Amino acid sequence: MNFDASRRASLQLLAMTALQPALAAAGAEPAAARPTLKVVATFSILADMVREVGGQAVEVSALVGPNADAHVYEPTPADVRRVARADLVVANGLRFEGWIDRLIASSGYRGKVVVASAGIAPLQLGDGVDPHAWQSLTNGQRYAETLRAALAAAAPQRSAEINAQAASYVARMAALDRDTRSRIAALPESRRRVITSHDAFGYFAAAYGVRFIAPRGWTTGSEPSAETVARIVRQARETQASALLVENISDPRMIERIAREAHLRVGGELYSDALSPPGTAADTYLRMFEHNVRTLLDAMTPAKISDQR
Ligand SMILES: [Zn+2]
User: Fold this and answer.
1) Average pLDDT over residues 136-148
2) How far apart are CA 38 and CA 231, in angstroms?
C-alpha cells in the first residue's frame, strides 16, 4: 500500500467512524418516533402530492376531501383548529381557494403557506385566471418540485428521502405525460371534442390537444341559464362533439339534460377538482389522471361512437 492509498483508507475509516453515531441513532429510532411535519393541504389532489413527495416525513390531511368542491367550500371550526396546529399549509393558489386567507387569519397560524402552483404559466379564463393548473402533467411536475423544496426546507434532517421521493414522482409524471400525448395525438383532431360540466380542463386542453366545451364559467358556484344550456346544445351539434362527460364534483343532471337535447351520449365521468374516495379508481393524482385519459380516449374513439348512434 503506497502512502496515498493508506491515507485514503484511513480517511475513509475516519469518515465511517464519524458517521457511526448518526447511523446508530437513525437505526435505533423507530420511523414512527422520528419527527414528522404536520401538513394541511387545501384539497385532496394537493394532499396526495404532498404525501408522494413527503412520504414518511409528513402527516398530511386535506381540508376539502374526495368528491368535494373546493370552489364553494365553507371551512368548519375543525378546519380552523387543524390549520392552527399545522407545521405547514399548502394551497393551490391562482384564487382557487377563495376562503383560505380568512381561514388562516381566524386560525392564528403564523407559519408558511406554500403556493403549489408557483412558477407555472397561468392560463386566462374569462376575466380571471384558470386555477386548474394540475390538469397538465407538465404543471404537475412543477408542483412536485415546489413541494419538494418547501418540505425539504421545513424538514432539513429528512431532505434526502424527500428529494429521492420527489425525483421518483416526477419521473412517473413525465412518463404518463409522454404516454398521454402520444395516445391522444393518435386520434383524428375532429374527434377530440367533448363537453364537460365546468371549465376545469383548460390546461389539459392546451397540453394534450382536446377541445372542452363547458356550460359554466370557471367556477361551479352558479347554475347556467336556459340560454346558456341552449347555446351549449347548439354548440354540441355544430362542433360535432364526440361525447358529454360528467364530473365527480358537479351535479350530473345538467349534462344529462344537454345530452338528451343534443342527442349525445354521456361518455363517462371525469375527475377535475377532487380525487375519488380511498380505494376507488381515481384516489391518487396519477390514478385520477390515468382515469381521465382512459375515459376521454374511450369517449372520443370513433368506433365507440358509431355503435351508440
Ligand atoms: Zn374547478
Assistant:
1) 98
2) 47
Task: Give me ligand 1 centre to Cα 220, in Å.
Answer: 6
d(CA 180, CA 208): 7
Q: Which residue in 118, 55, 98, 304 sits closest to 218, CA to CA? A: 98
CA nearest 228: which of 200, 271, 198? 198
Greater model confidence, 218 or 240? 240
Q: What is the DSSP string of 107-127?
A: HT--S-EEETTTTS-PPEETT
The three grid cell numbers given for residue 11, joined into one nine-digit string:
480517511
How many Å is the Cα radius of gyration of the chain? 24
For ligand 1, the distance from its centroid to the CA atom of residue 29, given in whole angstroms, is 43
Place of cell 387543524: 82
Q: What CA–CA distance (Å, rounded) separates 291 from 297?
A: 10
What pTM does this model have? 0.82
Alpha-carbon gap, residue 173 to 149, rounded angstroms: 18
